[in-house]
Amino acid sequence: MARIIGGLGTSHVPSIGAALDKGLRDTPDWKPFFDGYEVGKQWMRDAKPDIAVVVFNDHGNTFFLDRVPTFAVGVAETYNPVDEGWGPRAIPAFEGAVDFSWHFVDKLVERHFDPMVCREIEVDHGLQVPMELFFGRPEAWPVKVLPIWVNTIQYPIPTPQRCWEMGKVLREAIESWPGDERVVILGTGGLSHQLQGARAGFINQAADRAWLDGIASNPEPYRTMSREDYVEQFGSEGAELIMWLVMRAAMNNDVNLVHKHYHAPASMTGAGMVVLENAA
Q1: Residue 87: its pLDDT value, please?
Q2: Which of 8, 51, 149, 207 has the fewest CB atoms in 10 Å of its CB?
Q3: Within the chain, how many helices (H) and strands (E) appear?
């Protein structure tokens, strides 16, 4: 069977990609942020996964507000970078893990999920940036991808518990897959930020730092929090953190926190990452 070799949580702030495009990686504003990811990049080089499952949200680039699926799963052969307003970025297209993606879709339906199934779709910074943060800028990505979109843009967004349940189905799909692929799961989004309204510019560094520890050692409170609690603690856009729960639920109850990193602000966002491995 295939097996999970690690779970990674990471921010997917669009300005990260812009900083890389503009050659700002080692400037004073960005160097502390990018330096904190070097351990994660080395972990990925050593781990050598075959498939990367990336849990993210579209930002009005592929799905607009007239049609917003709660959950969507890609089964395409290729995912091209979408034009987010200044032309598609000069990064390679992403090869889909087609057969495994269909297997996951089938498991979701068996477990009473009703995902939108996407046979042809482009991907925005929600997937692009996490892949760059852990794989750099290769001529071709060394893994195939299974993209999972979660609605965190337009209410009602899914509950944290529902994201947790999806993670359990993801684990079941991986463990029932007859291949021997090594799978890494990336839960993306956050950390605390709010881009509009009376609290525009809101960052909660204390809650962010607690999250990076708690998602590894004690995720239960985050699974049972209400959506309103997420907005209160992490900001309206910080509610994206529910997507990390898909990753965490697919892991063992006990995990090892291999590395964590936090930096604020990255643009208007508290940003960071964790690398988790299943405990023996």
Answers
A1: 87
A2: 207
A3: 10, 10
